Amino acid sequence: IGEDVKPFTPEKTKEIVMSLQQPAVFCNMVGDWPALHWNAKYLSAVLDGKTIQFRLGLKTVDLVPQFETRCSYVEATLEEFLAWSCGQPPCLSGPFSCYEYSKYWAYADYKYIARIFEDKPEIFQDIRWSDFGFPGRSGKESTLWIGSEGANTPCHLDSYGCNLVLQVQGRKRWHLFPPGDTSFLYPTRIPYEESSVFSKVNVAKPDLKRFPEFRNTTAHVVMLSPGQVLLVPRHWWHYVESIDPITVSINSWIELDSDHEARVEEAITRMLVCAIKSAENPGDGDVWLNPTEVEATSHEINLQYLNKAVSAYFKCPKASVPEQACSSS
């Protein structure tokens, strides 16, 4: 196929994305996307001194996952991040001064493009998910990830949707596990984050004494390179690490009909976590809630979440609700 001809039409691509039960890497689908030029240096110029939050973790690999609750956080500009990641002689001042590059990695993860570029909405059009069969979906519905070598996200599954990930700069290694491996991955809701179920296993260095069943997992390992788009199907577990000195990725979560049911489960989970949390010593909050969760919400608010989730689930035409459930609902 010629360089400028995409291997699939948007309709065909959407069909693949919505039905495929295995991870897949799309090649030659984004060659004409302006977002392909979004390397860290370019983004630093666009952000022009604006600070973003970086999560810092130790490069030494421990037997337990380095959850976000165990990381440090700094506010810094991309310029400061780039200077630090080039291994420039350690600056005695600045946000990264306490963190030696050889010992730490930094990750500006989960950054909503709509939020960090709210004053430059024209940049949203650099991302064209319409090529994947989602017309109107752009950077506005996408998230940005910028990391240094070693930056990683602990192994987890996303409760909602499936995930499309575009690699822009550097390479990332993805360890993917099918939904059928869930029990072998020792799932936990602590730290609690709405929509994420974490694994207790550090898949990069598993503690097989504590987690013997992990031996039964089947890892699908993908090295994602710039210009490639990875499809992570619904409920596939993933551990992601940056391999190169600087990595930039952009992703978008595609909503699915099955999310209605997942929202009910998540609302119940939230209610339970907050109820147990409120009975705890209030000083222990940081151990429970993932930093992405601002605070434990009240019982009343949690009931509202649950009510909304349940009513949306029953309104959904595709929800296969057993007869008895309907009559007693």
CATH class categorisation of the largest domain: Mainly Beta
Report the strand count: 14
Largest sheet, spatial ordering of strands = 1-12-7-14-5-4-2-3
Q: How many domains in all?
A: 2
CATH architectural designation of the largest domain: Sandwich
CATH names the topology of the largest domain as: Jelly Rolls
Task: State the separation between the terminal residues, measured CA to CA.
Answer: 55 Å
- List the total number of helices: 8
Percent strand: 25-35%
Largest sheet: 8 strands, antiparallel
Topology readout:
Blueprint: H1 10-19, E1 24-26, H2 40-47, E2 51-58, E3 72-77, H3 78-85, E4 104-112, H4 113-116, E5 143-148, E6 152-158, E7 162-169, E8 172-177, E9 187-193, E10 196-199, E11 220-224, E12 229-232, E13 237-242, E14 246-254, H5 259-278, H6 285-288, H7 299-315, H8 323-328
Antiparallel strand pairs: 1-12, 2-3, 2-4, 4-5, 5-14, 6-10, 6-13, 7-12, 7-14, 8-11, 8-13, 9-10
Helix pairs in contact: 5-7
